[in-house]
Amino acid sequence: MIRLHRSDDDGWFVETNRPDHNHLLSDNCGEKMQWNSHKKIDQATKDTVCYLRENNVSLSKVHCILGSMHKSGDRLPFTKKSLRTICQQIAFDQKDDDIKKTIDLFRSMRSTDLDFAFRFDLDPEGRIKNLIWTSRRSRQQYTCFGDVVVFDTSYTTNLYKMPFGLFVGVNNHFQTVIYAGILMSEETIEGFNWAYKEFVSLMGGKAPLTMLTNQCRAMEVAIGMTLPGTVHRWCKWHVFRKAKEELGGIFSKKTGFKDAFNNVVNEMLTIDEFEKAWGRLIEDFGLVENSFMIRAFEARHKWAKPYFKDKYCARMTSTQRVESANHMLKTYVPRNSSMNKFVSQCNKLLKDRNEAEDSEEHKNKQCNCKERGGWPIEKHARRIYTRAVMKHFKAELERGQNFNPPKELEARSLYELEHSYAHLRPSWARTTFRVRVEEGERFQCDCGLFGHFGIMCGHVIRLMIHLGLNQIPDFHIMKQWTKSVRDILGPNVEGPSDTEVSLPKSFRHNIMYVSALELVKMGDLAESRGLWFQRVLWRYHRSAKVTQVTTRTTRTALEMVATATLGKQLLPSTLFAPDEGAAGHAVGEEQVAENMGAGAVDFADVMVPLEDGDSSSEAGYQAIDEHEDGDDEVVGPRRGFIGDGVRNLMQRQVRARLV
User: Fold this and answer.
1) Per-residue pLDDT tens digits for 73-124
2) Of 119, 332, 528, 615, which residue is 20 to 30 A from 202 by alpha carbon distance?
3) Nearest to 171 by CA among 524, 633, 611, 481
4) Burial of 135 (0-12, 13-18, 19+ CB in 10 A)
C-alpha cells in the first residue's frame, strides 16, 4: 500500500509505503475477473446487449452469445454480474419518462404511416386508463375481412400489469390478422364500452357481424350496449375448459363422458337434436342436478352449434387465434416491459404477420398449379379461391363423394342425400341430409356449413354435380375467400421510405471489423498474392477517396490489416530485399522481425500516400487495372513479397494494436 500526501508547494510525497499485501493474491483468472478493472464494458458491446434485450433475449443467452463472439465464455473481459448491471440500466432507461416516449413513438409511426391512429382515455388525475392503436394495413385488412372479430384480454405481461387485448380476424389464406391492440387499466363494463366504441370508430364506423369472446360478463354487457347489431358468441374452448374444471374426474377418458360431451356439442345440427342429446347425457352420467351443467344449458344460445349454424363465423368457434397471437407476442415482449417498449415490440409482431400474408399472396399470384382431370366446378373453384381455401373446398368435394345420388323429393326444389355407408356410421351420426334449392341457384343444406363458413358443404357440391352445374353460383361465392378480395381497396403500391436512417455506431463498427477480417482471409487464400494485393489495395484507396473517408483511425486500421497481411508492397524498401530468390526473402524476414521486436515499425507511418505525382505507383496501378480488364501480362514495376513467417508476425502485431 502507498499513501500520498500533498506538500505545501502543491507537490506530492509518499507518507506511507507498505510493500506487503494486506490481502491474499488472486490465484486464477476467475478471481482476477472480479476486480473492478474487469467491470467496464465498451460501448459497442453495450449496444449489442441492448439490441438483444430489446428482442427478449434472456440474460443467460446474452452472456452465451457474447461468449461465442469471443470464441469462448472464459475469454469475456467482464463478468456476468457486470452484464446484469448493464441490463438493469437498460430497463431503467426504458421506464424513464415512459408516457412521453410512447407518444413520441406514436408520432414517429404516424410520420411513416399517415393513416396510423391511436386513442387514449384519461382518468381524473390525468393518467392513461386505456390506449388503443391501429395502422393503415390493419384498417385495410378489416375492410376486407372484418365481418368476424375475435377479442380477448388474457395477456398482462407489462410493467403496469395492464391487460392487453387484441382484435384479430382471419384473412383469405386462413392466417391470423391483427386489427388493433389495446392496453386497459381494468376490465369493466365502462372500459369495454370505450374499447368497442373506439375500435369501431378507428375502423371507419363498420361494426363486425359476429364477435367471439370468453365468458366475461362485462364483455357481454358492453357488446349488447355498444354493438347491438353484432352477434356475440362465447369461445367453445372456454366452455370445455370450464367443464373440465367443474366436473373433475367425470371429465376423463375412462368414464366416456368426454367423447359423449364432444358429440353433443359438435355433431348435433338442430335445436331439437341438441336438447334431446343433452338430456340423455346428463341422465346417463347422473348430472341432472349438477350446477355447472344447469348453467351451461341455460346459456346454450351463446355457444351451442345449432344456435349458430346460420351465423357467419368464418369457421372460428374459439378465441384460439388470439391465444396464438399472445403466444407469439411473448417471444417479442420481455416481462415487465415499459409501455413504449411494449408498443414497439407489438409492432414487430404486426410486421411478422404482414410478412406472412405478403408471402402467401405472392405464392397465389406466381404459383399456378395445373391439375389434370377434375369436375368443371372444381376447376372454377381453383380459379377464384386461394390455395388455402381450395384445400377446404376439395375436402368437402371428397366428402360429398361418400353420398349416394340425390333423391328428388320435390320437383327442382328439395333433394335428399343419404350416406353410402349409413349402416357403418355411429348411432349418433346423421346419415341423411336435405338440400333445398331456391331460384335455381341458392342451395340451403341441413348442415348449415355455408352460413357458418362461407364455403359450400359436400352435400351441396354433390347435388350441383348431379344437376350438371359447371360453375359455382354467384350467391355461394363469398368475396372474403377469393383471390380478388383486395380489389375493393384499389391500387396499392408501396415503396421504400425516403427517410434517411443513421446507422448505429456499433453497427458501423461491426461492419468495418468484419470487412477487415474478410480482407485478411482473402489475402491468405489468394494464389497470386502480388497481383491480387495491388489490385485490392488500389481499389480500396480509390473507393476511400470517392466516399471521403476522413476518420484517421478507420483508414489506418484497414491499411494496417491490408499491409500486414498481403505483403510489403507499400512498405519502405529498406526493410525488404528485391525479389532475388530465397535469400532475398530471408533477409527481408529477418530485418522485419528484428524491427518489429524492437517496436520500430509504425504502421501508420509505413503507408506510402497515393499522390498524383507518384509515377511509379500510378504506372503499377494502371497496369493492374488493365490486367483486371482481361490482359494476361502485367506491365509495371515488379516487387518482392514477404514470406509467411513475417506475415504471421505482422498479423499478431496488428491484432495486438487493434485490441
Assistant:
1) 666 777 777 888 887 777 777 666 777 888 888 888 888 888 899 998 888 8
2) 332
3) 481
4) buried
Cα-based torsion angle of the residue sequence 404, 405, 409, 413 in order, rounded to the nearest 10 degrees: 130
149 near 168, Cβ under 8 Å? yes
Q: Phi/psi of residue 461, each to 5°?
A: -65, -40
> What is the distance between the alpha carbons of residues 466 and 400, in angstroms, rounded to a whole number?
11
Residue ranges of alpha helices (H) inside 385-492 are 387-400, 449-453, 458-467
Residue 529 per-residue DSSP state: H
The CA-atom distances, in angstroms, between 79 and each of 61, 70, 195 are: 14, 13, 47
Torsion sign (Cα): 631, 636, 638, 641: negative
C-alpha cell at 375: 369436375
Determine the residue type at 307: Y
Structure confidence by residue, pLDDT tens digits, 519-576: 666 656 655 455 566 666 666 666 666 555 444 445 555 455 555 544 443 433 333 3
In DSSP notation, 557-569 reads HHHHHHHHHH-ST
Model confidence, pTM: 0.67
What is the C-alpha separation between 328 and 341, in angstroms, rounded? 16
Phi, psi of 427 (to 5 degrees): -65, -30
Cell numbers at 622, concatenated: 494502371
Report the distance separating Cα 569 and Cα 73, nearest Å. Answer: 39
Q: How far apart are CA 542 and CA 550, in angstroms?
A: 13
5: amino acid identity, one letter: H
Q: Which residues partner with 130 through β-bridges?
A: 121, 184
Edge-to-edge strands of the sheet including 442-445?
A: 407-410, 414-418, 432-438, 442-445
Nearest of 208, 216, 125 to residue 165 by alpha carbon: 216
Backbone phi, then psi, for 579, in 5-degree steps?
-75, 85
